[in-house]
From TrEMBL:
<dbReference type="GO" id="GO:0016811">
    <property type="term" value="F:hydrolase activity, acting on carbon-nitrogen (but not peptide) bonds, in linear amides"/>
</dbReference>
<dbReference type="InterPro" id="IPR024078">
    <property type="entry name" value="LmbE-like_dom_sf"/>
</dbReference>
<protein>
    <submittedName>
        <fullName>PIG-L family deacetylase</fullName>
    </submittedName>
</protein>
<keyword id="KW-0862">Zinc</keyword>
<dbReference type="GO" id="GO:0016137">
    <property type="term" value="P:glycoside metabolic process"/>
</dbReference>
<dbReference type="InterPro" id="IPR003737">
    <property type="entry name" value="GlcNAc_PI_deacetylase-related"/>
</dbReference>
<dbReference type="Pfam" id="PF02585">
    <property type="entry name" value="PIG-L"/>
</dbReference>
Length: 237
């Protein structure tokens, strides 16, 4: 595989759009911690509250709990603005309502960069992706163009925003760029550990926050000069 190029960092604001609490913590939060330490402003937008994510906990209890865990998790990596949409966890559908919601956030926050999750059918190594991830990732990419067109979603009464320079896709099997997270890997692990109730309900590798994230960073770093890294598929707009 080709080496990964350094992620551009000549920008000041980003909007991260994902499906669930914990999605950003499984790979991207080390990069977010690096960027906020540089003085960049990063905002999180989640399509759901992750209410269907804990088998042993009913959605009406899990949603508020996971919302609180996500806010605490974001704070660890320097993110103070976390917004939630009202799409249903496990049942997100691609369409105009989702694109409209994301386009509205892009117009309100006016980011230079949109960060999102893997919109492909598989992850690196061939593991199957889930529908919510694919749908939100693709909708976020499409919403960047929607947000720039003043004649799309006119009812939002928000000025168009065509200033997004890059879309950075975390967890993509087609990663092209990476961010050195040598100094922020511990923060990445601490951020994921804030999802304590969620992690306690998991089994397997993903329940081990430190082990999982360190292995992922080392694996990505093999294509980035041996440094612990977070990988992204970079789409230039």
């Amino acid at each position: 595989m080709d080496d990964l190029a350094p992620m551009p960092e000549d920008w000041t604001t980003a909007l991260a759009v994902v499906a669930h609490p914990d999605d950003l913590e499984y790979g991207a939060s080390g990069a977010v911690a690096r960027w906020t330490a540089q003085g960049k402003a990063v905002t999180y937008l989640l399509a759901t509250r992750g209410e269907a994510g804990i088998d042993s906990t009913p959605p009406e209890e899990a949603g508020p709990l996971r919302e609180r865990e996500q806010v605490a998790s974001a704070a660890v990596v320097g993110v103070t603005t976390v917004e939630f949409l009202d799409h249903h966890d496990g049942e997100i559908t691609y369409g105009l309502p989702l694109r409209r919601d994301i386009a509205a956030a892009i117009r309100r926050h006016r980011p230079d960069v949109v960060i999102t999750g893997n919109h492909h059918a598989t992850f690196d190594g061939g593991g199957l992706n889930m529908a919510d991830h694919r749908v939100v990732g693709q909708a976020a990419i499409d919403a960047v163009r929607d947000a720039a067109n003043r004649w799309v979603f006119r009812d939002l009464d928000l000025e168009p925003w065509g200033g997004v320079r890059y879309v950075a896709v975390s967890g993509s099997p087609r990663s092209t760029h990476a961010v050195d997270i040598t100094d922020t890997l511990d923060l990445s692990v601490a951020s994921l550990r804030e999802h304590a109730v969620y992690l306690a309900a998991l089994s397997g590798d993903m329940a081990d926050a430190g082990g999982f994230l360190r292995r992922l960073a080392e694996m990505t770093g093999q294509r980035f000069g041996g440094r612990p890294a977070a990988g992204f598929e970079l789409l230039a707009m």
